[in-house]
Amino acid sequence: MIYDLVVIGGGPAGYVGAIRAAQLGKSVLCIERGEVGGTCLNRGCIPTKALLESVAVYTTVTRRAAEFGICVPQATADWSAVVARSRKVCERLSNGVGFLLKKNKVQLLHGEARLAGPGRVEVTLPDGGTQSVQASRILLATGACPREIPAFPFNGRTIISSKEALLLPELPESMLVIGSGAIGAELSCIYQSFGTRVTLVESLPRLLPREDEDISATVEREFRKQGMTCYTGAAVESVQEAEGGISATISTGAGRIQVQAAVCLVAAGVQPVVPAGPELTERGFIRVNKRYETSLPGVYAVGDCIGGAMLAHKASYEAVQAVQGMFTEHAPKPAENVPACYYMHPQVASAGKTEQELRACNIPYKIGKIPFRAIGRAVAAGETEGFVKLLFGKTDGELLGAHLVGPHATELITAPGLALAAELTDADIESMIYAHPTLSEAIHEAVLAADGLAIHA
User: Fold this and answer.
1) Percentage of the chain with pLDDT > 70?
2) Each residue of 273-283: b (16+ CB within 10 Å) or e?
3) CA–CA gap between residue 26 and residue 43 (Å, rounded)
4) Distances 80 to 84, 87, 170, 171 between C-alpha atoms, Å
5) Rounded to 5 degrees, what are φ and ψ at 377?
6) Active site residues
7) Could you read off the pLDDT of 28-85 as tens digits, one per residue?
8) Is the peptide bond before 346 cis (omega within 30 degrees of 0)?
9) Bridge partner residues of 31 (DSSP)
10) Between the CA of residue 167 and those of 36, 38, 51, what are the distances in Å?
């Protein structure tokens, strides 16, 4: 049988692309070497968020219940039960993806796939056998894996990746975390909240280095208030096994220091998984054109393996664009204004340009910024840290960027994201009637603040 489409990878790009092709009436085979749902669902986004939900409950019960007039004597956390709940969430969602593939008549094949040329894929099956598959088109959606630091490689015990960090059988007494992107920041927050002494090291000048400078400053302040030790502009020179865990040498602006910890989590980003030779790649990523097609005719690629923002929602978007471009008259669109979300406490979300990017491009802009402490719903919830910051073009008032830190920021970013996609102006966003009392009123007030017209601040 020659399939209309073979998809290599069953993660957020792969299964979404496979289902969209099936909806268009195409015969589709999806090949996945591990669990359906990929890294995001099984070893990344979803289990991390499940753990963070346990953090939110635990923190509220143990540290804040009295604030709300609730007495909860001697509440404790059962780490093994916390981890078990996260795995149940993953299993439920993975089974759900499997059901969706079956419902849409997408065939699923478990195995390790290798691109064998135009229209051909070789699959090594779990039993060691092989199977050759043919297709009119092939979609590479192979994702990414944790990036290892060669000087101190993963050993699965004392030097670990996010994969092991999500499944540790016991809470370590202490942890050194290298890297403060989404993975490092979220896992640092999880372990610090449950009692692990966390030391977070970032080589760049600030935490969350891709985010707006005001966001980074707020997150670092809140992390320190939670008891975390943070070093920025610091380099981890060595990590060696020592009695009780590891000993690391860290170079800081003030000189070298030694840090001992039970475990070292390396969260220095991810690297693409590429099931093809160097003829399709550039700087480790698969090269694609505007239609997401590689230099090999009929072979397409989307998601983390092609670079850009390495996020699940960006990967899913690209998969739909690529598949519709393959089988319809649709002109595929690039992923633009991709929202970035961090789910630790406090939450962070952003879309569009940062203030430093606008300055670098000499783009005139104005700022609308409102603290959550000015919003009634935030005060009622006892979640007043953080702010909403909107950046508008100074001449025409078009929204250029949105940066949020605080309660439910990852949910609130959707409205500014829509405004960016629709190229709305401050006048457009201000003209809406915002329900009261809601956190979304912070967006309204931030728009007003850009012209000095905020009512509640």
Assistant:
1) 99
2) bbbbeeebbee
3) 30
4) 6, 11, 7, 9
5) -65, -35
6) 436
7) 999 999 999 998 899 899 999 999 999 999 999 999 999 999 998 888 999 999 999 9
8) yes
9) 8, 109
10) 18, 16, 11
* Cα–Cα dist 427/447, whole Å: 8
User: What element of type H or E holds 116?
Assistant: strand 112-117
**Bridge partners (DSSP) listed for residue 266:** 178
Tokens coding 210: 């891709």
Angle CA 294–335–324, to nearest 5: 60
Q: How many residues does the chain have?
A: 457
Alpha-carbon gap, residue 431 to 420, rounded angstroms:
16
**Tokens coding 206:** 């600030």
Measured CA to CA, the distance from residue 182 to residue 37 in angstroms comes to: 20
Nearest to 408 by CA among 377, 432, 450, 430: 377
pLDDT digits (tens, 9 = 90+) for 240-261: 999 989 999 999 988 999 999 9
Interval 128-151 mean pLDDT? 95
Asked whether the beta carbons of 407 and 413 are under 8 A apart, the reply is no
Q: Which two tokens stand for residue 236?
A: 């981890």
Q: Given a cut of 90, is residue 282 above it in pLDDT?
A: no
Non-local (6+) Cβ contacts of 213 within 8 A are: 206, 354, 355, 356
SS3 of residue 225 by DSSP: helix
Residue 440 near residue 415 (C-beta atoms within 8 A)? yes
Alpha-carbon separation of residue 193 from 63, 112, 197, 385 (angstroms): 11, 38, 9, 17
Task: For residues 231 and 235, give the distance between their C-alpha atoms in angstroms, rounded to a whole number.
Answer: 9
207 residue type, one letter: L
Across 55-59, 165-169, 274-278, 316-320, least confident range: 274-278
Q: Which residues, at least 6 apart from 208, have a Cβ–Cβ distance to it below 8 Å? A: 180, 181, 185, 215, 216, 219, 342, 348
